[in-house]
């Protein structure tokens, strides 16, 4: 069995929100709109005016917390009391994950309006969960992806470049995490499709990511920026929601999850933690030194963390690496198809070596863009 979840429609163009009301209206006439203050400012007044013009009533529910099970219950109750027909999420990954979880519980269509291209959350049929301290707490699979994704490239091009870099890092990871699970299993069509989709994303980013990063934050919608946004949202989202029977060892994301338990990393974004997890994974795989160096340099040019210190961890690297390694949890049987060994001690060693690679890149004088 293979399951592929995708939005019914994905729109990406400059000033798209001018016609957002007309696109949303077929889904319903009462919208429960969840957004953070910065995100709402990024789409104000265009989105709300367009909803008004389309005759869509809405209630705005501010959100600035963590996607926890109690928060999902609280906002679900609010949407139910409002008798919402649509759930609209405006913002980054946390708001969009909360929105999807609510839509799933109430069996209502969800509209994703990303204001940053920092993850594939606006597409993916899953909500990432945390506890009140921001520590990883698993995930909630959703029955479907959002019905509609409205990626206004003007809004996304105006967001701080740090968020785009985070999205690029999270997307680069997809191929590296997926390809290691390939095997000769004849039932592994799901992983082969996912690998090819992730490979396309990686190829597009190799061509366009650095130019897109330079343009990010200016509001200028360039070809490179559009290609990069599509890679982050569509290709990474699709690669992650092609599911079947093949077990997967998402090592970089497992390292990310462990990092969330270190308070020092609280100021870093999802894609930033994942990027360091990727550097650790390629070291663990024993990939060629030139390949590791090129990857580390690429991440560094995007100002993504390639050292423990860049993640906010200033303790002894050996003790930090061991603490992180102890927190890495992989699904049962997820490593059976891997061509390399994974253990707590090997992970700790790889984390230290990844940190060493990062230090050498920085000491060599390479600068971020």
TrEMBL record:
Domain Alcohol dehydrogenase iron-type/glycerol dehydrogenase GldA as annotated: residue spans: 7-153
Name of the protein in question: Iron-containing alcohol dehydrogenase family protein
Protein family (similarity comment): Belongs to the iron-containing alcohol dehydrogenase family.
Keywords: Metal-binding, Oxidoreductase
InterPro entries from the UniProt entry: ADH_Fe/GldA, ADH_Fe_CS, Glycerol_DH
């Amino acid at each position: 069995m293979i399951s592929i979840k995708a939005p019914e429609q994905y729109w990406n163009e400059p000033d798209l929100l001018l016609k957002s009301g007309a696109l949303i209206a077929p889904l319903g006439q009462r919208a429960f709109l969840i957004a953070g203050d910065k995100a709402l400012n990024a789409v104000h007044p265009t989105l709300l005016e367009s909803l008004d013009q389309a005759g869509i009533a809405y209630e705005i529910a501010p959100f600035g917390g963590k996607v926890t099970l109690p928060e999902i219950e609280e906002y679900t109750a609010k949407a139910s009391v409002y008798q919402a027909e649509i759930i609209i999420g405006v913002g980054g990954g946390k708001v969009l994950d909360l929105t999807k979880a609510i839509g799933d519980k109430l069996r209502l269509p969800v509209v994703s309006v990303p204001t940053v291209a920092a993850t594939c959350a606006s597409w993916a049929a899953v909500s990432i969960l945390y506890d009140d301290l921001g520590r990883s707490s698993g995930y909630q699979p959703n029955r479907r992806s959002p019905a509609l994704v409205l990626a206004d490239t003007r809004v996304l091009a105006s967001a701080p470049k740090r968020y785009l870099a985070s999205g690029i890092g999270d997307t680069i990871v997809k191929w590296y995490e997926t390809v290691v699970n390939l095997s000769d299993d004849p039932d592994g069509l799901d992983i082969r499709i996912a690998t090819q989709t992730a490979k396309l994303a990686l190829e597009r980013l190799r061509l366009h990511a650095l130019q897109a990063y330079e343009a990010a934050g200016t509001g200028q919608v360039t070809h490179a920026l559009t290609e990069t946004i599509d890679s982050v949202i569509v290709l990474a989202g699709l690669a992650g929601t092609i599911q079947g029977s093949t077990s997967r060892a998402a090592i970089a994301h497992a390292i990310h999850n462990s990092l969330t338990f270190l308070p020092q990393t609280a100021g870093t974004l999802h894609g930033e933690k994942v990027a360091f997890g990727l550097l650790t994974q390629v070291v663990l795989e024993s990939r060629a030194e030139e390949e590791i160096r090129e990857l580390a340099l690429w991440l560094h040019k995007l100002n993504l963390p390639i050292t423990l210190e860049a993640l906010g961890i200033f303790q002894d690297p050996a003790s930090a690496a061991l603490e992180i390694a102890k927190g890495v949890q992989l699904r049962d049987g997820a490593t059976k198809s891997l061509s390399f060994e994974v253990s707590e001690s090997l992970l700790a060693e790889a984390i230290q070596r990844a940190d060493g690679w990062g230090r050498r890149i920085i000491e060599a004088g390479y600068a971020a863009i």
